[in-house]
Amino acid sequence: MKPLKFILRPLLFSFLFILVSATPDDSKQTEKIHDAADVLKDFSKMKESIPHNLIAEYEGIIIVPHLINAGFVVGGKRGKGIAMVKLDDGKWSDPVFVTLTGGSFGLQIGVQSVDLVLVFRHKGALTKVKNGDFTIGGDVSAAAGPVGRSTSANTDYKLEAEVYSYSRSRGLFAGISINGSNLGIDKKGNAAYYGSSISSSDIFETAKSNTEAVGLLKEALGAM
């Protein structure tokens, strides 16, 4: 009969293998959060940036770094990013990972990568998104956002739109139509970063994450 240690050793290795395999791989999500923070920092450095009052008054934000906008007669968009909403105490929630997809028809050609920021008037528009059944332009329409260091820089805007959109390509503001695009929750991304037992609604209701990446993201958003 084999000694007990020779029997337990394979079982121990098997247990460790299962444990390691079950550990979430959040490297892609961490990179996405860092990219989102960089987008906010880059926007804040631009001469005509997102007005501070807009960020202060509105309740939700989506940041999609490197959104691919491709077109050859029929255009298409696809990107992954993060969404955040304001909590009752005025702080920003932890980021929820989202996907943005859509298409459009028109005479267009080429492939363009843009950084996209959407600012939502009411957070309910984001917290109700679950299975990708939310369409920008159908459920709510997005308008090109005002620019300036404060809303007084452009008196034509009264900050009444439900969603304002900002897009940047190669360091400059770039026009892009997102109406008709579909917004969905990236469940795999959220499970990889937070654990499989958490839902997007749970993430939207908390600000408990103490990771360095989330801290840098909230710091960048607070400095807008």
How is this structure best summarized?
With 224 residues, the protein is α+β, with helices and mostly antiparallel strands. The chain has helices at 4-22, 27-45, 52-57, 124-127, 187-194, 200-204, 212-222, and strands spanning 60-85, 96-120, 134-136, 142-144, 163-169, 172-173, 181-185.
Topology:
Elements: H1 4-22, H2 27-45, H3 52-57, E1 60-85, E2 96-120, H4 124-127, E3 134-136, E4 142-144, E5 163-169, E6 172-173, E7 181-185, H5 187-194, H6 200-204, H7 212-222
Parallel strand pairs: 4-5
Antiparallel strand pairs: 1-2, 2-5, 2-7, 3-7, 5-6
Key terms:
single chain; 224 residues; alpha+beta; 7-stranded mixed sheet; 32% helix; 32% strand; globular; disordered N terminus
Question: What does this molecule look like?
Answer:
The protein has one domain. Helices cover 32% and strands 32% of the residues. The chain has helices at 4-22, 27-45, 52-57, 124-127, 187-194, 200-204, 212-222; strands at residues 60-85, 96-120, 134-136, 142-144, 163-169, 172-173, 181-185. Helix 2 (27-45) packs parallel to helix 7. The longest helix is centred in the first third of the chain and has 19 residues, at 4-22. The radius of gyration is 21 Å and the shape is globular. The relative contact order is 0.21. Mean pLDDT is 75; it is low at 1-24, 105-109 and 151-156.
